[in-house]
Amino acid sequence: MKKKKVESLCFWCGSEMGFAEREEEEGKITPERAIVSYFPCRACGDKFKGGITLFEAQETPFYEDQPSVGNGVDLFPSGRWITLPQDTTLQGAFGGKATEEIRIAGMGFISPVAFSALCENSSGGRPTNH
User: Fold this and answer.
1) Do the bridges between strand 52-58 and strand 16-23 make them parallel or antiparallel, or are there none, so unpaired?
2) What are residue 19's DSSP bridge partners?
3) Does the residue 87 lie in any domain?
4) Which distant-in-sequence residues (6+ apart) come within 8 Å of 68 by Cβ?
5) Domain that holds residue 17
C-alpha cells in the first residue's frame, strides 16, 4: 500500500496538529485532513490537566468505522468533555474504587446520560461540545 501525508486534526477541538502518514486504501480517496488518533493537541492536553477531566463515551461507536480508545478499553468517545476543579467531590457519582481511580488518573470516561446530568448540575466545570 502507498503511504500519503495527511494533516492530522485534534479529535477534541479540531485544530491542526501537523502531518501524519496514512496508508492509502485501494479504491478509496485518502482525505487531505483527518483525525488520526484520540491523542490531544497541546492546547487540549493543557486544559485536560487543569483538574479532573471526564470524557463522554459509550460502548458502541458514535459513527461508522470509529475506533475504540484502545489499550484494552472498548469505549468510543463522543468528543465532549468537562474539566472539573481538582477538589470536586465525585464519591456520590462513581463509588469509592472508581472515584479513587479517576482522581489518581486525573481523568475518566462516563456515559452520555451521566455526562449530560453532570453538565446540567456542574458548577465550576468547563463543558465542551467539540
Assistant:
1) unpaired
2) 7
3) yes
4) 74, 75, 76
5) 3-34
Asked, for residue 41, whether it belongs to a domain, the answer is: no
Residue 12 DSSP class: T
If pLDDT is split at 50, 70 and 90, which confidence band does 130 have?
very low
Task: Answer yes or no: do 59 and 105 share one domain.
Answer: yes
Which among 88, 66, 81 is positioned nearest to 112, based on CA atoms? 81
Domain count, the chain: 2
pTM for the full predicted model? 0.80
Q: Is residue 43 part of a domain?
A: no
Higher pLDDT, 118 or 13: 13
The predicted model gives 56-66 an average pLDDT of 93
Q: Quick check: 20 and 5 in contact, CB under 8 A?
A: yes
Cα–Cα distance between 57 and 66 in angstroms, integer? 12
Q: Is the sign of the CA dihedral 70, 73, 74, 76 positive or negative?
A: negative
